[in-house]
UniProtKB/TrEMBL annotation:
This protein's UniProt keywords: Amino-acid biosynthesis, Aromatic amino acid biosynthesis, NADP, Oxidoreductase
Single GO molecular function: shikimate 3-dehydrogenase (NADP+) activity
Pathway: Metabolic intermediate biosynthesis; chorismate biosynthesis; chorismate from D-erythrose 4-phosphate and phosphoenolpyruvate: step 4/7
Reaction it catalyzes: shikimate + NADP(+) = 3-dehydroshikimate + NADPH + H(+)
NCBIfam families: aroE, PRK00258.2-5
Secretion signal, residue range per the UniProt entry: none
GO CC term, one of those recorded: cytosol
Protein name as it appears in the record: shikimate dehydrogenase (NADP(+))
Top-level taxon of origin: Bacteria
Lineage: Bacteria, Pseudomonadati, Campylobacterota, Epsilonproteobacteria, Campylobacterales
Source organism per UniProt: Campylobacter ornithocola
GO biological process: amino acid biosynthetic process; aromatic amino acid family biosynthetic process; chorismate biosynthetic process; shikimate metabolic process
Documented EC number(s): 1.1.1.25
Keyword NADP included in the entry's annotation: yes
Length: 260
C-alpha cells in the first residue's frame, strides 16, 4: 500500500485528505492519504523519504523546492513546489498549484494585466501561471525581502502601488481573511484598485473573505480557491499514481468536498 500525505503548519483545516481518500476509494487504488503537522522545516526531507509522496502547503513550498533531487520545469521557474514524489529515496518536485489556478480562472476573460497580492510560494506559482499566458504581472507585498527572488516581475510595496494603473484581475495569495476579517492591505488601496478591475480571486477556499466581500461591493466577478484546490489535487493525484483520469478524479474529489 502506498502512503501519501499533506504537510504544512497549520494543517488540520486541509481538505486534501478527504479529497484524495475519496478519489482513491472510487478509483480503487491501493493507497492511503493522511496529514502531517510539521513544525521544523529541516525535517521535511526526512518525512518525505518515509512515504511515497506528499502535497506541501504553507509555509514549506519553497523548502520543498530546495530539498528536491529533481525538479520539473515549472518548479525551476517558480522556485517552489507543492507536490513531492519519493522514488527510491530520490525526491521529485512538481508544482500543480499553477495548473489548478489556470483551470480555475478559465472563464475570466480577457485578462491583460494582473496584480498578485503576496510574495510567497503560492504567489510565485500564480504569477508564473499568468506569465505563461502572456499576461502582464505585478506583485505587491507588505515587505520587500521576498522580492529578491522575483526579478521577472514588477514588485512594489502596497503603499508604492500606482493606484491609477488598471489591473483586470486581482489575486489574493496571502492568509489575510483565513482566520479573521483582515484585508491583505489597506482598504483604501484595494478600493481604488477594484474600481478599475474586472475579476478577483482569493486562494482561500470555503470562506467569504473580506477581500471577496469588498470585490463584490465593487461589482467584480469573484472566485474563491475551491476550484484551484480541486484541480491542483487532480494533477497531484495523477502524478502520485500515474492515473490519467482527470474527469473521474475531479468528480470524486468534488463529491468529497460536498460531504458533511
Amino acid at each position: 500500500m502506498k502512503i501519501f500525505a499533506v504537510i504544512g503548519d497549520p494543517i488540520m483545516h486541509s481538505k486534501s485528505p478527504r479529497m484524495h481518500n475519496n478519489a482513491l476509494q472510487v478509483l480503487k487504488k491501493d493507497a492511503v492519504y493522511t496529514r502531517y503537522h510539521l513544525k521544523d522545516k529541516t525535517r521535511l526531507r526526512e518525512i518525505i523519504r518515509k512515504i511515497d509522496g506528499a502535497n506541501i502547503t504553507i509555509p514549506f513550498k519553497e523548502e520543498a523546492c530546495d530539498i528536491a533531487d529533481f525538479k520539473d520545469e515549472s518548479v525551476t521557474h517558480i522556485g517552489s513546489a507543492n507536490t513531492l514524489l519519493n522514488i527510491n529515496s530520490k525526491i521529485y518536485a512538481y508544482n500543480t498549484d499553477y495548473l489548478g489556478f489556470l483551470k480555475a480562472i478559465e472563464n475570466f476573460y480577457p485578462i491583460e494585466n494582473a496584480l498578485v497580492l503576496g510574495a510567497g510560494g503560492t504567489a510565485k506559482a500564480l504569477a508564473y501561471a499568468l506569465k505563461t499566458k502572456n499576461i502582464k504581472v505585478t506583485i505587491a507585498n507588505r515587505s520587500s525581502f521576498r522580492f529578491e527572488n522575483l526579478t521577472n516581475y514588477s514588485c512594489f510595496l502596497y503603499e508604492q502601488l500606482d493606484l491609477n494603473e488598471k489591473f483586470d484581475l486581482i489575486v489574493n495569495t496571502t492568509s489575510a481573511g483565513l482566520y479573521d476579517e483582515k484585508l491583505p492591505c489597506e482598504e483604501n488601496i484595494l478600493k481604488n484598485i477594484f474600481q478599475k478591475a474586472k475579476f478577483a480571486f482569493d486562494v482561500i477556499y470555503g470562506k467569504n473573505t473580506s477581500f471577496l466581500k469588498l470585490a463584490r461591493k465593487n461589482n467584480l466577478e469573484v472566485k474563491d480557491g475551491v476550484q484551484m484546490l480541486l484541480w491542483q489535487g487532480v494533477f497531484a493525484f495523477e502524478i502520485f499514481l500515474e492515473c490519467q483520469k482527470p474527469k473521474e478524479i475531479f468528480k470524486a474529489m468534488e463529491m468529497a468536498l460536498k460531504l458533511p
